[in-house]
Amino acid sequence: VGDTISALGERALIERIRARIPKPPPWVIVGAGDDAAVLEPERNTVEVITTDALVEGVHFDEAFVSPADVGHKALAVNLSDLAAMGAAPRAALLSLMLPAAWPVAHLDALLDGMLDLAGRARICLVGGNITRSPGPLIVDVTATGTVHRRRILLRSGARAGDELYVTGSLGGAAAGLSELRADPSGMSAASARYRRPEPRTRFGMLLGRNRAARACVDLSDGLADGVRQIGEASGLGAVIDAHALPLGPGVAGLNDALSGGEDYELLFTVSPKLRRRLGGVRRLAHDLPVTMIGRMTSERTFLLEQHGRTEPLPVGFEHFAAPR
Amino acid sequence: VGDTISALGERALIERIRARIPKPPPWVIVGAGDDAAVLEPERNTVEVITTDALVEGVHFDEAFVSPADVGHKALAVNLSDLAAMGAAPRAALLSLMLPAAWPVAHLDALLDGMLDLAGRARICLVGGNITRSPGPLIVDVTATGTVHRRRILLRSGARAGDELYVTGSLGGAAAGLSELRADPSGMSAASARYRRPEPRTRFGMLLGRNRAARACVDLSDGLADGVRQIGEASGLGAVIDAHALPLGPGVAGLNDALSGGEDYELLFTVSPKLRRRLGGVRRLAHDLPVTMIGRMTSERTFLLEQHGRTEPLPVGFEHFAAPR
Predict the structure, then answer these.
(1) Which of B2, B85, B213, B255 could bridge B207 with an S-S bond, Cβ 3.0-4.6 Å?
(2) Helix B67-84 to helix B201-209 angle, to the nearest 10 degrees?
């Protein structure tokens, strides 16, 4: 079955990763291999920087998520944060904590998944760190992006009366996780949503560039949580139309769509007067569904309308409360 | 004894950390709290970016390293990487993986240690991530800095005939770790070197600004490893004078100085013709000892001179080979 991580050693592992990284663009002055990477800033832009980690036993289970899935997803969740700010991806650092007995072939597969997405998203791996883990596999990624200063998408920009929109569909990742727990070899569309979320990089950039959205977040912890994030940051409430929610593959009920995590869709608000700008963005992103699901209100309550009745919007997923 | 991490939950923990962060400077356009941080680049500089993690059971043992020590050290090792590039510290992201049963008071102490050093080093905590760990405590930091493009210190700039210098003293951290393993309550100078390494931030910046050094690394894995890093990157060898090595507190023999990790001193090469520039840097950094310990050679071998005899330079510390 080949070497393990501890048999190869740190230096050889770093060389193995470096050899896989495509030739960097000219703005990478010093790439992986020195004490730190050195990057030329992009003119007339500001820098967006974020970090997010995947921890075995908390964010994934190796029984039904492959090393390539983990590599893809660890980068995808960071790209999703950049997309929610309207930023173009630029550079990534990869901090790996590897169990000593992990096969090197798994590391290769993890890099396959990550570098494939990195190539498509045009983000450049410029460095990182590698160390032993006494327990779980941990993949921690830091991602940077660039955005024009006046094109930044924040959570706090919503106004009362704004319409709420969501990209793609909701609840598919939660439904996929349920399916995978029952059948770890499941290859349904829902399980793919869970294992390989597709960050909405291009759509986020288009939303920012066209100034079509007033506020935006990515949905890591469910729609209900995302609505609250925008509402609380903007000092507003919201009413969500349960019948309008675009349910993802394999989603049976509303619960997955409202409280299921890890869809990594974009939730954003649009002024009714600027609907035309959104129309322009939608034409440019022609294959990505965009659905209006509610509106922001001046009253600071979060409500769900269903069958003509109104009830409180449930709360979202809490990372510390329950393992996925 | 107070709350545990899991009792407080993710949101409350993030708020607790945010409340501790000093008011950011104007170049922080968006700080902690949105999907990502947004930073204004510094004019006429390039960006240096690095990441390094401390993993419980690999890099530290809670029996003799306090949470405040861990907070200090997790930032210090990243600041040391910036110093080795000649960069001025700027922004940091903190990615925490916390055992569910960890006391919140320990998190507060970890932040005490980190924010105290951050204030002194003038690095601004702009964001991060927090998640549960099913096992070890992990503190992963990403740090950015700035440097003028022609002032960057690389490993690869050494030339044959360059003199090799080291800041401070060697082996103290390894001696301190041995002491702490024997007596976890030890408060010697050596144990302080292990628990609270002082990054050579100012000296690294001075070296770069004055163009006094041709190549530089920080010593995380021992002097012998650092000498090899510069030699291999520059296509050279080196001869080290064993009698010249500045031994740290509690260091009995050469082994700690050569192969003991975690001193976080700077190792750099200077052209004999530019010794005067180094003199200027030393005057500005008057309280930090700087010692000449050998020279770079065109022959690609790494040698140690001792009692008039020459032997091969031992190899450095390997992270995957043995736990510290």
Answers:
(1) B213
(2) 10
Q: Give the residues across from A304 on adjacent strands.
A: A240, A311
Residue A129 with chain B: CB contacts under 8 Å: 51-53, 140
The residue of chain B nearest to residue A152, with distances taken between CA atoms, is: B38
**In b/e form, how buried is each residue of B54-80, taking b as 16+ CB within 10 angstroms?**
bbbbbbbebebbbbbbbbbbbbbbbbb
pTM (2 d.p.): 0.96
Using DSSP's 3-state secondary structure scheme, residue B250 falls into coil
> How distant is the alpha carbon of residue B143 from its chain centre?
11
- Is the pLDDT at B110 greater than 60? The verdict is yes
**Above 0.85 for ipTM, yes or no?**
yes
- HEC letters along chain A: CCCEHHHHCHHHHHHHHHHHCCCCCCCEEECECECCEEECCCCCCEEEEEEEEEEECCCECCCCCCHHHHHHHHHHHHHHHHHHCCCEEEEEEEEEEEECCCEHHHHHHHHHHHHHHHHHHCCEEEEEEEEEECCCCEEEEEEEEEECHHHCCCCCCCCCCCEEEEECCECHHHHHHHHHHHCCCCCCHHHHHHHCCCCCHHHHHHHHHCCCCCEEEECCCCHHHHHHHHHHHHCCEEEEEHHHCCECCCCCCHHHHHHCCCCCCEEEEECHHHHHHHHHHHHHCCCCCEEEEEEEECCCCEEEEECCEEEECCCCCCCCCCCC
CA neighbor of B90 nearest in space, from B66, B118, B123: B123
Interchain proximity A95–B95, CB inside 8 Å: yes
B299, with CB counted inside 10 A (0-12, 13-18, 19+), is: exposed
State pLDDT tens for residues A141-161: 999 999 999 999 999 999 999
Average pLDDT over residues B46-73: 96
What residues form DSSP beta bridges with A139?
Answer: A54, A96
